Amino acid sequence: MNEPRTPVLVVGAGLAGCVLALELAHHGVRSVVLERSARPPRHPELNLVTGRGMELLRRLGLADAVRAEGADPDSPAAVVWSRALGETPVLVTPVPSVNELRRRYAGRTDGAAPVEPYVVLTGAGLTGRLRDAVRENALIDLREGWTFTGLRLEPDRTVATVLDAATRVRHELDAGFLAGCDGAQSTVRRCLGVPLEDAITPSRHCTLTFRSDGLRHPYPELSTIIANGMTLTRRPGDLWTGHLALDCDDADLTDPAVLLWQRFGIRAAEIVGVTPWQEALGVAGTYRRGTAFLVGESAHRFHPPSATVDTCLADAVDLGWKLAAAVTRWGGPHLLGSYEGERRRQAMREREKLSRTLAARHHFGRLAASGATAAQLASVLRQEAPGFDPAGLADAGPRLPAVRLSGGEMLFDLLGPQFTLVDLTPGRDGRSLAAAAVARGIPVAHLPIDDAPLRSEWRSRLVLVRPDHVVAWRSPERPSDWDAVLDVVTGHQREVHVFT
Ligand SMILES: Cc1cc2nc3c(=O)[nH]c(=O)nc-3n(C[C@H](O)[C@H](O)[C@H](O)COP(=O)(O)OP(=O)(O)OC[C@H]3O[C@@H](n4cnc5c(N)ncnc54)[C@H](O)[C@@H]3O)c2cc1C
C-alpha cells in the first residue's frame, strides 16, 4: 500500500526519534514517526540529562515536563570509589543537588553555567514524557505498532518498507529524508550496510534493578558506588540499580538474586528488572547514505553509558534543524553534510572519554586486588578518572554564553526558533541585515539588546546564533559582505562557522 511522500520519516520513537520529530515540528516541518512497540517503554534504569541537555529540551518547551519526572531536586549525591561494599571509601566526590546548582548558576554572570541544572530520571519516564509530547503535536504522525523492515535508496528520496502489526499489512512509505533513530541494534543501519566500528572487544554485562532492605550505605540517594567491579546506585525507597560484568558462569542469568548474593553478598528482596547489554564503544563508519541518516544510538553505541542521553539528544537537535532547512529549501547542500562532521566528531570525543573511564576502572580494580593502599588508589583515580560534569558544557562547542540580562530575562529565552541575530550596535545595524536574510528566504530573527553590562563584556556587537545556541558568526561591526556570511552559515558554501 503506497502513501503520499512524507518530508521526513523517523524510524523509532525512543529519545532520539521523539526529539528529532519535535525539533522538526519546532521549525514547522511535518514527519511520520514509526515505532514498533505498541506499548510505552518500561526501562527502569536511570538516565542523567545534563544541564546542556536540559537547555536543548527547554528550547522545545519540554524542560518542565521532563523535570516533573525527575528525582528529588534537594537530594545531593556522590560518586564513591571503594575496594568493596561496606569498606571505608578510597575517594568520595560530592555532586551538588539540583536546587543547590540552581542557586549557584543564578549567581554566575559570565554565561558559562547552563540555564538549567541536570535531572536524573528513569529511561521510561524520559521517553514517556517525550512520546506524550509527540502524540500531542499536530505536525507529527506517530504510528505505534509499525515496524520498519527495509529500504530502497533513490537519488532524491528513500522508500521504506514497513509492517503494521495491527492489520498485518505491509506498506511502502516514500520519504524525502529518512532518519534511523532505532537504537543500538538499528535495522536502518544494517539496511544501509554501515559498520559499527568498535574500539573494544564487546563483553557481556547486565543492569539489575532490585529491592533490598538490608543493603545500606551512608551516602545520599542517587549516589553511585563503584566497588568490586559493580557500579551501584541507590534510588528512592529501597530500590537499587547495579551495572555489572557477567562471567562465563553467569551465562544464562536465570537467577539474578543468586548472582547478587554469590558475587557481592547482597540479599535482594525482589528483582525488578534485568537488562543485559554488551560493553561496547562503537561509532558508525558514516552517519549518512544519500537521503538516509543515523541518529542517537543507531550511530554510536556506548555501554557502559555515561552522557549518552545528551549525545543522542544533541544529534537529534542538530539533524532536526538542518533537515528542516533542507525541507523548507533555505539550507544549502553543505548544511546537511555538516551533520556527520559535527556529530561524529563529538561521538569520537565521547568515546575517548569513556575509554579513559574504563581504563581507570580496570586499573583501580587491579591495584585494589594487589593490595595497594587507599592513598595510592586515590592518587590513581585523581589522575586517571575523568571528572563528572553535571553541566555538560565541556564539549558543547562555540555555544552562546547563557547570560541573564539586566532586566532578569535569560538571553536564551529570547532567541527565535531559527537563526537569531543578536544586535548590540547603537544604530541597530542588525535590522537591515536580518531583513536582507529574510529577503533571501533565510529565517533570521532580529534581537536588539540594550544591555550596558553585556555591551561592556562582549567585543562582538553582532552575533548570529544557530537554532541550537551555537554561534555561527560574530563581529564587532557590520560585515563587508553579508551575502558571503549567509552563504556559509546556510551551507551554500562549505564551512558552517564563520568568525570575524
Ligand atoms: C541499562 C542502561 C542504562 C543506561 N543509563 C544511562 C545513563 O545513566 N545516562 C545516559 O546518558 N544514558 C544511559 N543509557 C543510555 C540511554 O538510555 C540511551 O542512550 C538512549 O535511550 C538512546 O536513545 P535512542 O533513541 O537512540 O535509542 P532507544 O532509546 O533504544 O530507542 C530506539 C527506539 O526505536 C524502536 N525501534 C527499534 N527498531 C525498530 C524498527 N525496526 N521499527 C520501528 N521502531 C523500531 C525501539 O522500539 C525504540 O523505541 C542507558 C541505557 C541502558 C540500556
Automatic annotation (TrEMBL):
<dbReference type="InterPro" id="IPR036188">
    <property type="entry name" value="FAD/NAD-bd_sf"/>
</dbReference>
<keyword id="KW-0560">Oxidoreductase</keyword>
<protein>
    <submittedName>
        <fullName>FAD-dependent monooxygenase</fullName>
    </submittedName>
</protein>
<keyword id="KW-0503">Monooxygenase</keyword>
<feature type="domain" description="FAD-binding">
    <location>
        <begin position="269"/>
        <end position="348"/>
    </location>
</feature>
<keyword id="KW-0285">Flavoprotein</keyword>
<keyword id="KW-0274">FAD</keyword>
<feature type="domain" description="FAD-binding">
    <location>
        <begin position="5"/>
        <end position="220"/>
    </location>
</feature>
<dbReference type="Pfam" id="PF01494">
    <property type="entry name" value="FAD_binding_3"/>
</dbReference>
<dbReference type="GO" id="GO:0004497">
    <property type="term" value="F:monooxygenase activity"/>
</dbReference>
<dbReference type="InterPro" id="IPR050641">
    <property type="entry name" value="RIFMO-like"/>
</dbReference>
<dbReference type="Pfam" id="PF21274">
    <property type="entry name" value="Rng_hyd_C"/>
</dbReference>
<dbReference type="InterPro" id="IPR002938">
    <property type="entry name" value="FAD-bd"/>
</dbReference>
